[in-house]
From TrEMBL:
Name recorded for this polypeptide: Maltodextrin-binding protein
Keyword Cell membrane on entry: yes
Domain of life: Bacteria
Molecular-function GO term, any one: maltose binding
Similarity annotation: Belongs to the bacterial solute-binding protein 1 family.
Bias kind Low complexity: ranges: 30-44
Length: 429
């Protein structure tokens, strides 16, 4: 009887141990995407899995086609998901997604610029970067993350950054002068208006190129952080001082705003008639082909002794809120913006990385053009991304045309600019 009793007790203990062991191990690794309210926690526990039979279409500009196809091949090898390319440029993608997304014909993943986020969020066509949020924040520039954050939520997966700086022809000028006094002195010796020779050129009527002056004098478009549409700083004393200074530069660039555009600048620069060309990294490839002894310098300091602070843009991949394959789309957006693929995009296309490790790498820092643009990026202001930003461009162009072409009083022109912007914002134009 005692042996049977002992055996019964031992059997019960063994069964209890097996039950406890099963309970302890059964929960690990069994969670599926969407079963937790904290995507970051879920990401720590497991890897996201693409939907069965997922097929993706990615929108981007034509110059990114080869890069995307290379990433698509590697992505298929890893996740067995087909990815195809369609040419829709980042400057047009968000507007097109507003109509194509709900219609079910939009790209699953699309490249865009951060200042379009407000438009996309308001229309409900963009999914937040939730699952990979913490990883994205940890590996990318703080400025890039700030630019892609809207109403305290991260949207998009940063792929590259851009801002403007000063291309210069080393055969015409040794370096970009430290300040505008140096630029003016050089212009007085170099300019030959009849021969179309100019020291420096920028798109005077374009708000993107006006802001480096305004920002450098301490003003802003919408509030100090670019989010308050009720606080327009474009006619305050700092902005008036900035545009008054711009107006005075007409003496070294006596052309109408309509006669200064990207193509004209490029033509003069590549024919050795323009010493300094203010532009962005998107022009690097074509300018290097035509100007053998090319360099890039930081903006010259303003008369107030302060550096100019240009607008910056952050290009990112966004996930269409109407995609049939949100998991696969998020996976691809994260995959193609990783350290490995940002490095490859720099190697293939010269795209300036938002990834901090890539930006600090020897390969990037030893590049005399990329390294300067990244340095200028660190002293830049992300374009505001609220929907009201759409009301900045045309009124600013009109104001600068009157200030530059017609010598109109800057304060009067800027007062009219702000009045027009406020009216357009209120009426939702």
């Amino acid at each position: 009887m005692m042996n049977r009793k002992k055996w019964g007790i031992m059997s019960c203990l063994l069964i209890m141990m097996l039950i406890v062991s099963a309970c302890n191990s059964g929960g690990a690794g069994t969670t599926t995407p969407g079963t937790t309210t904290d995507p970051a926690t879920a990401a720590d526990q497991q890897e996201m899995v693409p939907e069965e039979g997922a097929k993706l279409t990615v929108w981007d500009s034509g110059d990114q086609k080869t890069f995307i196809e290379a990433a698509a091949k590697a992505f298929k090898e890893k996740y067995n998901v087909e990815v195809s390319f369609a040419e829709v440029g980042p400057d047009k993608s968000m507007g097109q997604m507003v109509t194509d997304g709900p219609a079910g014909v939009g790209g699953d993943v699309f490249a865009g610029v951060h200042d379009q986020i407000g438009q996309g969020v308001s229309a409900g066509v963009v999914l937040p970067n939730d699952w990979f949020e913490e990883d994205t924040k940890s590996r990318n520039s703080e400025i890039a993350i700030k630019a892609l954050t809207y109403d305290n939520m991260l949207y998009g997966y940063p792929k590259s950054v851009e801002t403007t700086a000063v291309f210069y022809n080393k055969d015409l000028i040794k370096e970009v002068p430290q300040d505008w006094n140096g630029v003016i002195d050089f212009a007085n010796t170099f300019n030959d208006t009849k021969a179309n020779k100019f020291a420096i050129m920028w798109e005077v009527g374009n708000g993107y190129y006006v802001f480096p002056f305004i920002g450098g004098y301490g003003s802003y478009v919408f509030g100090s952080d670019g989010t308050d549409a009720t606080d327009i700083g474009l006619n305050n004393p700092a902005a008036i001082e900035a545009t008054t200074f711009i107006q005075g530069l007409n003496k070294i660039l006596p052309l109408k705003t309509s006669d200064i555009n990207a193509d004209i600048k490029k033509s003069l620069f590549t024919s050795n008639k323009l010493a300094m060309n203010i532009s962005g990294p998107w022009d690097t490839g074509s300018l290097k082909e035509s100007v053998k002894n090319i360099g890039v310098g930081m903006y010259p300091n303003l008369p107030n002794g302060k550096p100019m602070t240009p607008f910056s843009g952050v290009k990112a991949y966004f996930v269409n809120a109407y995609t049939k394959y949100p998991n696969a789309s998020k996976l691809f957006a994260d995959f193609i913006t990783s350290e490995e693929w940002q490095t490859k995009n720099f190697e293939m296309n010269g795209a300036l990385p938002s990834n901090t490790k890539v930006a600090e790498s020897e390969k990037v820092q030893s590049d005399p053009i990329a390294s300067v643009f990244l340095k200028q990026f660190e002293n830049s202001v992300p374009m505001p991304s609220i929907p009201a930003m759409a009301q900045f461009w045309s009124p600013m162009e009109a104001a600068m045309s009157s200030i530059w072409n017609d010598n109109k009083d800057p304060k009067a022109a800027l007062d009219n600019l702000v009045s027009q912007m406020k009216s357009n914002i209120e009426t939702g134009q």
